[in-house]
Amino acid sequence: MNPAKTEAILREHVRLCSDLHELFIEEGQLMRSTGEPPSEEFLEKKKKFVGVLDKGLELLRMINESGEPVSPILSPLVKECRDKIMKLMIVDRENERLLLKCSLPPRMKEAYSKVAPGQVARAYAKFAK
């Protein structure tokens, strides 16, 4: 595959990852502000994005299936793609935790209440001896 086409595909993937990152950030903010799982409207918005992401992944497969190594000139772009994916994974994991917390019955939510400053340090100090 020619390097210009590979670069275009990678740049598109970075853009898709950035858009998905913004969507995940919005999802987290919604759950933090409302204390409830995302609305059906928001979930539909996410579902629409899946089709776009599938097309982007198909383009990445084309690069992989070409059998040609990616040009060293594109290494920074590949690194940027990897970095974006790692950010997505971190934010998605945070959102999963928020979703679990939002979905719990009221009595179980109490167990996940905020920790007082220094409480964790005191707990660890008990076992540090």
How is this structure best described in words?
There is one protein chain. The chain is mainly alpha-helical and 129 residues long. Helix 1 packs antiparallel against helix 2 and helix 1 runs parallel beside helix 3. 8% of the residues are buried.
Report on the biggest sheet. Answer: none
Strand content: under 5%
Provide the residue-averaged pLDDT: 87
| H and E string | HHHHH
Record field, number of beta strands = 0
Query: How far from one another are the termini?
Result: 61 Å
Q: Quaternary state, please?
A: single chain
Provide the low-confidence segments as ranges.
none
> Which structural class best describes the helix and strand composition?
mainly alpha
Shape: elongated
Please give the radius of gyration in angstroms.
20 Å
Number of helices: 5
The share of residues in helices is over 70%
Quick synopsis:
With 129 residues, the protein is an all-alpha fold. The chain has 5 helices and no strands.
Layout of secondary structure:
Elements: H1 3-34, H2 40-65, H3 75-103, H4 106-111, H5 119-127
Helix pairs in contact: 1-2, 1-3
